[in-house]
UniProtKB/TrEMBL annotation:
The chain crosses the membrane at residues 12-38, 116-138, 144-164, 176-201. The keyword Transferase does not apply. One of its GO terms (cellular component) is growing cell tip. This is Pali-domain-containing protein. The keyword rRNA-binding does not apply. Keywords: Membrane, Transmembrane, Transmembrane helix. It comes from the Eukaryota.
Length: 236
């Protein structure tokens, strides 16, 4: 049947992978210090030390700092919303304008959408696993919601961390670049888009096939009944 076609399960797989990718972005620094949305390599880099700041969904970590004898990583408490502009200013000594700082600080609160989008994407995956017409339709609708949430939070990520990145690289004291957490969010957005349409397509394909099968069975039943009646009355 169309509802269990390989194409349907391709869409379901896309939704599952997207939820995993969003989970990776969600557990970025300070949950896991080495996973970052934006990473800043600090100017005190040496052959022994490669100090950096990793910014994630709920805060930041400072990695590989002194003393030389130990491998020190400091991850700060998790918060919904934090102040990356103030953090960079304190470390690099390159202050932001008040407008830029306030804008960046405010946008960090929107990153709460990372775990929300992750949960919604997983719900879409679970619904689509039902493989029925209703399950596929609900899965596609929930996947559409997850896609919108991911698109919004990804745009926020690029906006707020773009300001930080341009500021850091513009002063040429340290070097900033987008890290794994940004690209997993982007990949999740793409997979959700295609997964949503594949699941929706298979939903309508299954419904069309079901109607065609019902019509065929109805025609066959009508023909059989007519022939039986003719035989009964000696018409054949």
């Amino acid at each position: 049947m169309a509802r269990t076609s390989p194409l349907h399960w391709v869409g379901v797989t896309f939704l599952f992978i997207a939820s995993i990718l969003l989970l990776i972005t969600t557990i970025s620094a300070p949950v896991i210090g080495d996973i970052a949305i934006l990473k800043v390599m600090l100017s005190n880099k040496t052959d022994i030390r490669h100090s950096s700041v990793t910014f994630g969904t709920f805060g930041h970590c400072v990695l590989d700092v002194a003393p030389v004898q130990t491998d020190q990583d400091y991850c700060y408490p998790r918060h919904v919303g934090y102040k990356p502009a103030d953090i960079i200013s304190a470390i690099d000594g390159t202050p932001f304008s008040k407008a830029a700082s306030d804008t960046v600080d405010g946008l960090t609160r929107v990153m709460i959408l990372h775990p929300i989008a992750c949960a919604v994407a997983f719900i879409a995956f679970a619904l689509s696993c039902g493989a029925g017409v209703v399950g596929s339709l609900l899965g596609a609708m929930v996947a559409a919601l997850a896609w919108v949430l991911t698109l919004v939070v990804m745009a926020v990520d690029f906006s707020l961390f773009g300001v930080i990145k341009n500021h850091v690289n513009g002063h040429k004291v340290s070097h900033a670049y987008y890290s794994a957490g940004m690209w997993t969010c982007l990949a999740a957005m793409i997979l959700l888009f295609f997964g949503m349409f594949i699941v929706l397509f298979t939903c309508f394909s299954a419904r069309k096939a079901k109607k065609a099968n019902y019509k065929t069975n109805a025609d066959y039943t009508t023909t059989t009944t007519t022939r039986t009646r003719r035989k009964r009355f000696g018409l054949l």
